[in-house]
Structure to design on (547 residues):
């Protein structure tokens, strides 16, 4: 399968083989579970687990980069804001001159960070290991209207074509003496004469694309659409889906019990 | 006359934003399995007519229409474009605008229309393999369509139209943006489809090709039909150039030899007979 719009590159891994709906369920089950759970421990455990999943998906290097690249700055920022200035701060755990760091703020910052990283990590792995065509086919099979599916795919795939069109117009303008290189100001200036031709050609293209779609049965109603991309559901998918649903139910029960101070 | 697959009766059309009619009261019939060419200068109404044949007029382009178009007995006005796509297909100039932009591979692009019809996966795979071979794109079937050359993308577009199994193919200057090699490849495929019984309606500016392949040629000028006939009769008419129509070189050579009295033979529209005619003239 060729690489298209998203960052998916086929690597023939067990994670790649999973049904996209299993991965979507994982994003929401793990993310929402972390969000509602009263402390950050659950999120931390899931994040460690995600590193293992990324290893299985052969994306550990890129996954580590994105988790630390996002995680470190956001941790520093939230720790500073929540730790020093949260109104919930009662227990002071450190003092730096005029700055006092509160335990409640730090814990709250940890909670936010772990939730964000769980959402980011699960979504990143899903995106890296799922072919867009397969994702849309799975969503359509699950009841997503085909027109909505088309919007997702077409808006992603039309970007490279637009970029190519811009390059062609810019080259044509450059050949006629328009300054297209140089410093930042010159480059910004070069984009202004591009706007008219790019917008106009995009409108013309849209009309022709509409014609193409119509003649290929885009407007057919009352037919359950099918896809060339096969979406299968393995036993592993079924087991994982059951585990993820069970996980979320347990988290909800634990959260309620913890909020009621029963455990 | 054989079975009529397409019939246009007193058809006129004016686009909403224009004052003049793009097509003025035209009527003609196309026989099943024939190779029918439409020629004419820019603005003569060729593309408008193509759009009317496949139902884009009146279902997609808004304007004032009168008359009737029938494809395989199906009245275009009363059918949806999607229903008509099973009877008649359209391929136009720009290869890039004929991609659905939903596919990551050529195979998915070919299958897009079938998916809209709800064709089963097994059947889809069979048809994609068959059409890919026919269009000579089976070696790039797993590639991204955007990675292909213009000629290859146009073959993907032709395949995506043909896979819907229309009995009539309308080709609106579909080789204009291609290099000579890509253009000939498309044309060879179209010719082979015609030999398999598909009716071809082709708009083209390449007169040698039109003269060589058409069973019948229709000349349009200002939205009106000025002639419908076999290629030999169309191109031997001296007035044809008044309608801004180019004449094939073979015809010019024959006409010149006749005018100068070197031969009295009929006009030739192909390479080999023209060479023979020149040889004869030189001997004489």
């Amino acid at each position: 399968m060729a690489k298209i719009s998203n960052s998916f590159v086929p690597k023939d891994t067990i994670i790649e083989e999973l049904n996209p709906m299993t991965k979507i369920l994982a994003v929401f089950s793990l993310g929402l579970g972390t969000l509602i759970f009263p402390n950050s421990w659950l999120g931390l455990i899931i994040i460690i687990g995600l590193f293992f999943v990324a290893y299985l998906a052969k994306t550990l290097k890129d996954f580590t980069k994105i988790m630390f690249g996002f995680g470190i700055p956001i941790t520093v920022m939230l720790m500073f804001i929540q730790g020093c200035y949260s109104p919930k701060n009662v227990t002071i755990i450190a003092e730096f001159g005029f700055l006092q760091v509160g335990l409640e703020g730090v814990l709250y910052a940890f909670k936010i960070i772990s939730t964000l990283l769980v959402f980011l990590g699960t979504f990143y792995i899903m995106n890296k290991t799922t072919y867009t065509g397969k994702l849309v086919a799975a969503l359509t099979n699950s009841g997503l209207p085909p027109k909505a599916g088309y919007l997702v795919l077409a808006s992603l795939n039309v970007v490279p074509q637009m970029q190519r069109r811009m390059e062609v117009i810019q080259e044509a303008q450059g050949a006629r003496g328009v300054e297209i290189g140089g410093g930042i100001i010159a480059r910004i200036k070069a984009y202004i004469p591009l706007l008219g031709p790019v917008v106009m050609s995009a409108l013309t293209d849209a009309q022709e694309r509409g014609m193409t779609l119509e003649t290929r049965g885009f407007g057919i109603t009352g037919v359950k659409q099918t896809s060339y991309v096969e979406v299968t559901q393995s036993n592993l998918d079924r087991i994982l889906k059951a585990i993820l649903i069970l996980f979320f139910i347990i988290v909800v029960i634990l959260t309620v019990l913890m909020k009621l101070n029963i455990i | 006359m054989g079975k009529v697959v397409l019939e246009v009766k007193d058809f006129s059309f004016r686009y909403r934003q224009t004052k003049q009619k793009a097509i003025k009261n035209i009527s003609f019939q196309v026989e099943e399995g024939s190779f029918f060419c439409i020629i004419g200068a820019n603005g003569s109404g060729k593309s408008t007519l193509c759009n009317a044949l496949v139902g884009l007029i009146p279902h997609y382009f808004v304007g004032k229409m009168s008359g009737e178009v029938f494809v395989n007995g199906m009245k275009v006005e009363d059918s949806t474009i999607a229903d008509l796509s099973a009877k008649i297909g359209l391929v136009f100039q720009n290869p890039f605008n004929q991609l659905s932009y939903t596919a990551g591979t050529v195979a998915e692009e070919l299958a897009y229309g079938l998916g809209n019809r709800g064709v089963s996966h097994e059947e889809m795979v069979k048809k994609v393999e068959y059409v890919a071979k026919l269009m000579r794109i089976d070696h790039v079937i797993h590639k991204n369509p955007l990675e292909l050359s213009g000629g290859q993308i146009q073959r993907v577009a032709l395949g995506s139209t043909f896979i819907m199994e229309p009995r009539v193919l309308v080709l609106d200057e579909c080789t204009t943006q291609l290099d000579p090699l890509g253009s000939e490849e498309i044309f060879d495929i179209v010719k082979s489809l015609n030999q398999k019984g598909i009716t071809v309606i082709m708009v083209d500016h390449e007169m040698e090709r039109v003269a060589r392949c058409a069973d019948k040629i229709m000349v349009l000028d200002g939205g009106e039909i000025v002639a419908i006939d076999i290629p030999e009769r169309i191109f031997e008419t001296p007035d044809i150039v008044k309608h801004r129509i180019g004449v094939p070189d073979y015809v010019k050579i024959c006409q010149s030899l006749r005018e100068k009295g070197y031969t009295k033979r009929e006009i030739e529209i192909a390479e080999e007979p023209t060479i023979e005619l020149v040889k004869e003239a030189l001997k004489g």
